[in-house]
Design the sequence.
């Protein structure tokens, strides 16, 4: 019933509604649980149960801090920030390597980080998702996280800036360096981009 | 899974009676961070104002008169305490600003440069209104670092043969005729014609001053002065110099 009342409402309007009636929170959860679950799986080695537990933690934390949500920010950036921080802190305790990419995503990511000359030559080439993952996991965490947010989660620079709490200029620099870093590791690993 | 998760979350919210933290808590935190930022700018202003005051009162012009190693003179004259304080508060202002709600959006260099610029503006104001001098006078009474620097200055200004004496005014007839008691207890008669009294040098009994000129008669403690400057900070007996003087007097008597 509440989910129907939420149709057509923006996230920011929903936040205001939730603060008056917590039942509307189901709408926000429904909107973000799949996206956040996928993001959690990308950046941590969590099992299905662990993902659910983390999701619960994230949504409860978001609910508790709802009065801290700044309407000048996108709600998605705000909740992604909470998800990022909680997941990274949980992953750092286990340090196990998750599956970051699937085969279609691997193709997409390699196309993006390849240079323009390489792209024209190698459009037909197929890349093993495991190879790409291997490269990603050899990367410095700060480069890996911007690549994931930009190219796998499709976030723009402002959103990444708000999620990671870094200036936009720094985000741009990190993405540029991340691409170079990716190519450098690929070369060392003899992965032909 | 969709309804299950949201259902579980709503159930947990109801079961554990979880409510959103009140807005005032977040506002208080935001205000505290901003207040901390402003305090660090203010302290930065105090540091810069004090640095300006110390540098303009370091008597760089008298260095040629004395036989001191320049590097030691520089080390003793530079306001390292305030330089370190300024570096510290610059980091603090950067930290505090970047922890404001949208502070992370600003380039760190801009934050640091702007903080220093704000502190600089404040510091110059504090210097102009005399607050920096008050801070220096008060700190020189309580901080050990200042004692070391003060001892060095006492040593510099206890060279009547080089035309440098300092002490507390114990008697004053007029600005060209007064007496000072130096740190070693000796009373010097200061005489001159149209002695230049620098700003803030007070011509009253009890005031602490530095005097430049020429020792007319060391045995009779008569000093011909050209200029009087204010002495900033505590003036106390220096046991090392006193011991050296006692030894010199003992040798003379023998």
Sequence:
């Amino acid at each position: 019933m509440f989910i129907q009342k939420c149709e057509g409402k923006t996230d920011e309007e929903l936040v205001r509604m939730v603060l008056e009636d917590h039942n509307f929170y189901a709408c926000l959860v429904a909107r973000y649980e799949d996206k956040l679950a996928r993001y959690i799986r990308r950046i941590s080695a969590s099992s299905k149960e662990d993902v659910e537990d983390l999701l619960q933690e994230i949504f409860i934390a978001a609910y508790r801090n709802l009065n801290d949500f700044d309407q000048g920010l996108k709600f998605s950036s705000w909740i992604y920030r909470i998800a990022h921080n909680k997941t990274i802190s949980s992953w750092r305790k286990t340090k196990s390597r998750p599956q970051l990419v699937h085969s279609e995503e691997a193709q997409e990511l390699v196309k993006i980080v390849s240079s323009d000359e390489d792209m024209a030559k190698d459009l037909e080439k197929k890349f093993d998702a495991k190879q790409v993952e291997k490269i990603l996991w050899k990367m410095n965490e700060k480069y890996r996280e911007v690549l994931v947010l930009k190219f796998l989660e499709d976030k723009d620079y402002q959103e990444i800036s708000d999620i990671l709490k870094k200036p936009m200029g720094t985000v741009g620099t990190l993405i540029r360096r991340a691409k170079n870093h990716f190519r450098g590791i690929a070369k060392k690993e003899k992965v032909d981009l | 899974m969709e309804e299950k998760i949201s259902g579980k979350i709503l159930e947990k919210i109801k079961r554990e009676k979880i409510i959103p933290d009140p807005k005032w808590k977040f506002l208080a935190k935001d205000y505290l961070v901003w207040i901390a930022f402003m305090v660090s700018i203010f302290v930065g202003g105090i540091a810069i104002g004090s640095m300006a005051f110390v540098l303009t009162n370091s008597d760089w012009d008298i260095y040629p008169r004395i036989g001191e190693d320049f590097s030691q003179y520089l080390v003793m004259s530079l306001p390292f305490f305030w330089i370190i304080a300024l570096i510290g508060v610059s980091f603090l202002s950067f930290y505090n600003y970047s922890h404001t709600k949208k502070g992370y959006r600003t380039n760190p260099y801009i934050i640091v440069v702007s903080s220093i610029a704000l502190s600089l503006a404040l510091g110059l104001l504090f210097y102009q209104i005399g607050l920096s001098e008050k801070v220096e006078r008060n700190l020189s009474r309580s901080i050990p670092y200042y004692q070391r620097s003060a001892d060095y200055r006492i040593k510099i200004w206890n060279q009547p043969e080089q035309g440098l004496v300092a002490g507390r005014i114990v008697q004053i007839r007029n600005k060209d005729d007064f007496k000072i008691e130096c740190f070693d207890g000796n009373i010097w008669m200061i005489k001159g014609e149209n002695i230049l009294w620098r700003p803030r040098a007070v011509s009253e009994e009890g005031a602490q001053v530095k005097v430049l000129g020429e020792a007319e008669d060391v045995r009779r403690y008569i000093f011909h002065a050209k200029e009087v400057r204010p002495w900033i900070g505590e003036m106390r007996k220096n046991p090392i110099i006193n011991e050296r003087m006692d030894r010199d007097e003992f040798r003379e008597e023998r």
User: Anything to note?
Assistant: Chain A has two domains: 2-94, 103-188. Residues 119-124 of chain A have pLDDT under 50 and may be disordered. Residues 65 and 71 of chain A are 13 Å apart (CA to CA).
